[in-house]
Design goal:
Elements (H helix, E strand, L loop, with lengths): L1 H41 L5 H17 L4 H16 L6 H20 L4 H13 L5 H13 L4 H13 L1 H6 L3 H13 L5 H10 L2 H15 L8 H11 L5 H15 L5 H6 L4 H13 L12
Amino acid sequence: MNRILSVPFFLLALAGVYFSFTIGLGDTYAERSSNDFQKWRTSNERTLEGWKSAFTNLDRALSFAPRDPTYNQQMSRLYRSKVTSGLAVGEEQVEAGQKSLSHLRASLEVRPFWGPAWAELALTKALVREFDDEYFRAFENAALYGPWEPSVIHILTSLGRGDEKRLTESGLRAIIVDAYVRGLRSPVKGVYKRTLTSLGTHLNLQAEVIDSILPFVSDDWPRGKSDDFFNLANGLWPHLTGQERDVVFGVLYPNVSKFRNPAHWIRNSENEELAVRLCQRFIEDGVTQDLSRWCK
């Protein structure tokens, strides 16, 4: 009897070992592919051989776990890069674009609430010029499931800038504005500057974004966020009206004056008018430490 009972347990344990082994192999190949892909992306010459090396390793990873959402999302990026790099042309380009979409759909079947995958689906749909219901749904779901993800913010603002008219006509303009606002408020390094640069070339939306972001820089700032909010006010300053500048400065000065040396804020002011205001206010308050070099 004991022998009979031990057989199923042995088989179950064996299956567990095999499952763990295949997962480990899949991750090994996926990591190799990721390294190959990174080398290929940063190379001065993006060769087909380099792309194939990344593809072969990832294809092996998928053979061990065909439904793995991360592997499928990575494979979609590989196919998309084949299109954007010019390695695929003609029918091969069309095929690569469709395979990129297929792998994203497979990823989302397993992980339907993953915002970055939805954003990449919208991006890939735009790349292959398929502006249908799936495109608009992907755009919406990206904002719904990953509103603060840096990659989502970047893709939504990029698509918003390039496809503003179509997205506006589909009632998605507010999502574009919100993506800009989140990007400008993001604490993740690099996201703020990238978003501000994008906004600088998106003239049609600047006023709406500023109207939406203004309450955040006109209200009391969260503790420990002086640097972030100063950078935000600094970047927005050229786009603000005189009255808006007065409001923002009224909140900015009490916050920055509590922390760091006054010269730190003045030398980091990218706008001369803001630097002059800071100098005048610090001097009025009797704070002159290390200001002679920065305040004329």
